[in-house]
Design brief:
By secondary structure, the protein is mostly beta strands. The chain has a domain of 143 residues: Lipocalin, CATH 2.40.128. It contains 2 helices and 11 strands; from the N terminus they run αβαββββββββββ. The strands form 2 sheets. It has an 8-stranded antiparallel barrel. Strands 10-11 form a two-stranded antiparallel sheet. The longest helix has 17 residues.
Length: 212
């Protein structure tokens, strides 16, 4: 009996040393909810008279609101710019602190009348947009690179394309994505509604928001 118990305990010891439970994959950081971003136009390429005009607007600011829904590492998002009056839908993913979004559709991605510095009138339509950002404890920086087709008024054939890039700082507001109707971009930083407080920023407001 003693010999049997010794062999049994030895077998348990060997099996426990030779096996290890698989480590479960770490969950992606949660980014679901409402965000507010403070963006600055940093570069413009292409676009004939549109590009020339927008180049003079580098440094202009805008405020956007973002709704983000997360399923595991996959993201669905929408971004609405207050001054530019554009609103687009994105899909993407998150890993560690990185967030990457690509354009899915753009329900409000047209600028029907853009007046160039030389007086020419153009129509613009967003055709591509890519957003890369960081989520570092509910805040971070990011880049929005958007390409638009440029049309003559009444034309359906693009005259050229213009690509604009903006850099932004954004903060998560802590509002659940399914309650996003209480924050649609018209509420500016500092607004308080019950327990929901939109954090103050060092320079939250902008006059003549947007660059289109």
């Amino acid at each position: 009996m003693v010999r049997f118990l010794f062999v049994f305990l030895l077998s348990l010891l060997v099996s426990s040393c030779g096996s290890s439970s698989p480590s479960s994959p770490s969950a992606a950081p949660r980014v679901s909810g409402a965000w507010i971003g403070n963006a600055t136009l940093t570069s413009v390429t292409g676009g004939e008279c549109v590009g020339t005009t927008l180049a003079g607007a580098i440094g202009s600011r805008d405020i956007f609101s973002a709704r983000v829904q997360q399923t595991d590492n996959d993201l669905a998002a929408s971004l609405t710019y207050q001054g530019n009056l554009t609103s687009c839908v994105y899909k993407g993913s998150t890993s560690n602190e990185a967030i990457n979004l690509t354009l899915s559709s753009c329900p409000d991605g047209k600028i029907e009348r853009f007046v160039c510095a030389n007086g020419d009138v153009r129509r613009l339509e967003i055709v591509d947009s890519r957003v890369s950002a960081q989520n570092n404890n509910r805040t971070g920086t990011g880049t929005d690179t958007t390409t638009l087709n440029v049309y003559l008024p009444g034309s359906t054939t693009p005259l050229s394309t213009v690509t604009v890039t903006s850099q932004f700082l954004w903060n998560m507001l802590g509002i659940p994505h399914d309650d996003f109707h209480i924050f649609d971009g018209s509420i500016l930083p500092g607004y308080v509604d019950g327990t929901v407080i939109i954090p103050e920023e060092s320079n939250p407001f902008c006059t003549d928001c947007g660059w289109y």
